[in-house]
Structures are given as C-alpha cells and as structure tokens.
Amino acid sequence: MALERLRRHDDAIAAFGQALALDDGTRAARIRYDLGTVKARAGRSAEAVKDLRIALRLNPTDGQIRHNLELLLLSRKEARKTSATGMSDRLGLGHAGLSVDDQVVLRARISPDPRVEHLERYWVGHYFDHFDGREWTSTGADRPEQPQVALGAPGPSPEHQSIELLAGYASMTLVGLDRPALFGDARASNGVRPGMIEKEGEEVRLSASRWDGRFQYRVESGAAAVSSLPDDSRWRTLPVELDPRIGALTSIVLSGERDPAAAGAKVVAFLRRDFRYTLEGADPWATDPLAEFLFVRRAGHCEEFATAVAVMLRTGGFASRTVGGFSGGTRVKSHYELRASNAHAWAQVFAPGLGWLTLDATPEGVNRQPAQTRKSQPLTKAQAQGLLDRLAEPATRVLNWPESAGAPDAGTIQDW
Questions:
Q1: Which DSSP string corresponds to 75-142?
Q2: What digits encode the pLDDT tens for the residues 82-138?
C-alpha cells in the first residue's frame, strides 16, 4: 500500500517523513516508523531524506533506518514517473540519472515568421524565486481564473504564436517565446474552452481539471521590459544553510564587479570554462547538491548550471531567478516543433533600466533537458546499498580541506 502511494506522485515519498527526536544527553535517534499512520513532515521528499540521513549518522547501526532509506531509494524510479515534459511547479537538484525522451510535445506557428531551420530562442514556462537548497519553487499567489492573462505591457515589436500542446506534453503550464505578454484563446481537442490562472507573473496554466490529449492557445511575446522592481527581496533570498564556500567563490569570480549584466557574464564565463555538461546522475542524497556540483563533480545538468548562476549572483548582492521551459525548435513545413529533449532551465539577473537579462551557462551543443523533465534511471539494489553505506560514514568535504576549516582562500580556488 505504501509503495503504491509512492508510484502515484513524487510527493508521496514524504509519507516516509520521520518524527526525528533526540534524547537529551544521549543524542540517540528515535525513529517511529509506521507506514500506515506516519504523517508527511513537510510535503516534500527532501524533508524525509534529511531526517533519515541525520538519524543514520547518529545511530549508524539502526537496521530500520537503513531499511527506510533503501525503500526511498528503490522507489525513486516509480515516484518520478511523470509526463514526457514533466512541467511541474518545481525545479530540483540531485537526481539519480537521466535518459532522453525525444518525442514531439509542442507545435507552434510564429508571426512574423522567423524563416530559419533551427530556432535559437527560449520558451518560458516558469519563473522561480525561492530556493531552499535543493529545489526552486514559485511563491506567488494564484489570481482569479480569466479567459486570458496579461503578464505585461506589449512591446514595440510583438511576436504572435499559435501553439498546440500534444499528448506527450501532459502539463497544464503554458509556454511562450521569451517575455510573454498575453496568453489567451485556449481550447481543448474536445471543444471545451478552459480558463487561465496566473501565478503572480511567474506562471500561466490552464484551469482544466485534467489533461485532455491536446490543447491550443495563442501567445503574444515581446513584453516591454520592466525597468525597476518594487520589492526585489524575494529575488535575493538565499537558503539558511548555504555553504560559505559559494560566497567565497563568487567574490573571486566577480572581482568586485557591481554591474548586474557584467557580473552575470562573469559567472557564465566561469561555469562554461571550468565545468561540463553530463547526463550522469549526481548523488541524489547529497546534503548540499549545489556545493556537490560546484566543488566535487564540476559537471551537471542545465538545472544545476542555472541554479549555480542564480545563487552565485544572489551571494554577490544581485536580484536573480531561474527559469524553466524550452529552448530551440526545428522547422517542419510552416511551423516549429519542440521535443521533450528541448526542455531547458536557465537563469536571469535583473538590471535596473534594462529589466531581466537571460543568462545561460549550460555548455553549447549539448542536449539541454532539465531533470524535472526527464525520466529517472532506476537505482539498482547494489547502488542503493552503496549510498546507504556512504551515508553511514563520517561527513567529509571536498578539495582536500575539512568543512570545519571554513571557506577556501583565493589561492586554493584558483588552483582548480
């Protein structure tokens, strides 16, 4: 019964969330484990994993804790089965391995017609403002349902798109070419015309109660740039327990740069020069997946590159965010097709007077597909046991210095 819950949705993993309590004076972890009655701790799998990791380190011989973690690991494949694009309301880090799904999920006609074979453009689906150390979410509130949604004032050179979402798309979140200004005229393949719901400028989704095979809608892009932010604090917030080495690294990369566009360019150049793209999975239970990417693996998926750009800029005092959607498009007759493998994540920095500027650190010429839109590779029992054995070991850090030593100095970083 419990495993069946895991297969329905990734958040069901949170049903394994443990009520972790430390005995006064003994630091022994008491884990109350009851698959039938345990309550979700915070609605996210990361919370359950964190509790179990802590519990295992406090009491590495506890067989029940190890069994619980093994269930979490081995159920990951089933829990992450979503649609081909998986356009969820989160952008997460730390996945066990990825495979490419190349089916066509979207067709679009663009006016004026670009008349190019390969479109080098971004299609925006989500703007993310909050990062908790493992995943990005949007904190904006839903606005009332409307037949159309205006996200901004039209610019001087609007681009009109007629978009058809195909069966493999299977998400209610709508996309449009960069700087979408207006969404409207939605209709399902059965003739129903669903309304649209805006999440405070961060997302537009259909109000339909279920995926009905295909949807069509229209978008106008080219919104006028926002010259200032009334409250930019939401775009500067950092996780409470951010690895101090990230701030130290940012200081060296920026070298005192205070111009947002120039600072963004420096971070992108650093990541493109010294890091590589890979479809290989990261350690899914790393305590800090961003630090793992920056200081251990130095290779990752586009969501890790996007997160590194946004977080590094925030540590440097700049307003930034991550974006989820698609990039590219291939011309077929008079329209453009996007595949699941076109799904992508990137970052943006805000420059007063210029608005949000796109920053893409993912290396060129790779299959740009974020983890939230790919299918997870299964973890074998041996891999799961290996992860459990690692969790039981004392925590160690990277680049040959202990975590207790604090941030590295400039010489250490420049020697990479």
A1: THHHHT---SS---SEEE---S-EE----EEEEEEEES----SB---EEEEEEE-EE-SSEEE--PPB
A2: 334 446 678 888 654 444 668 899 999 999 999 999 999 999 999 999 999 988 999
In the predicted model, what is the mean pLDDT of residues 372-391? 44
How many residues are recorded in the chain? 416
Helix (H, G, I), strand (E, B) or coil at 2: helix
pLDDT tens for each residue of 295-347: 999 999 899 999 999 999 999 999 999 999 999 999 999 999 999 889 899 99
- How large is the angle between the packed helices 244-254 and 260-274, nearest 10 degrees? 110
Rounded-to-integer distance, Cα 178 and Cα 326, Å: 10
* Residue 294 to residue 242: CA distance in whole angstroms: 13
φ, ψ dihedrals at 237, nearest 5°: -65, 140
β-bridge pairing 299-300 and 276-277: parallel
Distance CA 84, CA 82 (A): 7
For tokens 């519990």, what's the residue?
Answer: 55
Nearest to 161 by CA among 174, 147, 143, 142: 174
Structural contact between residues 243 and 334, judged by C-beta atoms closer than 8 angstroms = no
Cβ(234)–Cβ(139) under 8 Å? yes
H or E element at residue 323: strand 320-327
Distance between CA 10 and CA 80 in Å, rounded? 5
pTM reported for the whole predicted model: 0.71
Mean residue pLDDT of the chain comes to 74
Least confident of 261-265, 311-315, 361-365: 361-365
Label residue 49 by pLDDT band (50, 70, 90): low
Query: 226 by DSSP, 3-state: which?
Result: coil
- Edge-to-edge strand order for the sheet containing 330-332? 149-150, 180-188, 215-223, 154-165, 104-111, 335-339, 330-332
Best CA proximity match to 311, nearest among 331, 340, 326, 290: 290
**Could you tell me where the DSSP H helices lie in 223-375?**
244-254, 260-274, 289-292, 302-315
Q: Provide the token pair at 185.
A: 């005229």
Q: How many CB atoms lie within 10 A of CB 32?
A: 10
Amino acid, res. 6: L
- For residue 312, the tally of other CB atoms under 10 A from its CB is 29
Task: Name residues whose C-beta falls within 8 Å of residue 55's C-beta, 6 or more positions apart in sequence.
Answer: 18, 20, 29, 31, 62, 65
Cβ atoms of residues 31 and 55 within 8 Å:
yes
